[in-house]
What does this fold into?
Amino acid sequence: MKSLFDPVQVGALHLSNRVVMAPLTRNRSPNAVPTALTAQYYAQRASAGLLITEATAISHQGQGYADVPGLYGSEQLAGWKRVTHAVHERGGRIVCQLWHVGRVSHVTLQPDGGKPVAPSAITARTKTFLIEDGGGSFVPTSEPRALDASELPGIVQDFRNAARHAIASAGFDGVEIHGANGYLLDQFLKTGANQRKDDYGGSIANRARLLLEVTRAVVEEIGAGRVGLRLSPVTPANDIVDADPQALFDYVVRQLAPLGLAYVHVVEGATGGPREVEGRPFDYDALRRAWREAGGKGAWMVNNGYDKALAQKALEHEADLVAFGRAFIANPDLVERLRANAPWNPWDSKTFYGGGEKGYTDYPTLK
Ligand code: 8OZ
It folds into this structure.
């Protein structure tokens, strides 16, 4: 029987256990450059089987929040190199989450103050996070412009370049493509944000095209064994919705299966919220079966609101990896605490986004 504490081979990565640190936005990278404190934060959590970094912009255009890191400049890569080195010194494994926010951005964060880009010119009724005069605040996202089809190969190339740099320059063990939570790739997937009339809109195959092109390019660049993908079929995060998510994601995982990805990472329910979303039923078992049926051999990673009992149940029921988010913010030694059935430090949501070491590197371990 699988246990959270088994070592496991995931694609090209050998993990010391099945406990994963989920990607967590922390807004502590001024000028998009991870700092020495960032390295300390991840190193403190290196006993996780796998660390997934906070979402990291693949390009300036892909930026949507203040002080989130990037992967498109040499200082950013050097900052990440320090992080991966610190994690590897502690015996950990770390992949970088590749992110393009699409319409979830603000003109002040875009190149030349331009409009954020999206499949269609539909504003997301959501907020982004800006830091001005040292203080953080949530502000409505800006109205986007629809991408011209001629711009899409450039975005695929940005993902490809970011993946190459993640491995070759920043020293990551792999990457996770962010296909979730209402950001660019999810915007293309879903009817609520995509009203295109070209080859990238309309049918499910068309809406899935950009995600599949990006995934194939990244796989070609660094090898499938170092590539994971995050999906969130029904999350309402960032004002995203699809008319028929079961059919959409059935198609997506069947297309992905032959690529040989290291893992698929599924956010069940509302990201960081309820595991069931009202009015948006979804059969995750059917999704996993579709992936396996189509030849998907990679690990199946589940996420959202797990505790030890629920995690163990998921492993018994065919999950391979369990990602923990907020629990890892507050518990650098979460693996040890799970093993010992020890209580968890509570998290402080006021220090999630922005700031310094408070609520970042100062959570205590058991010993
Ligand atoms: C919280 C705040 C800002 C961004 C996501 C990258 O939901 C995020 C994010 C989460 O995937």
Residues 25, 55, 65, 181, 237, 271 surround 2-Phenylacrylic acid (CB under 6 Å). The first strand starts at residue 8 and ends at 10.
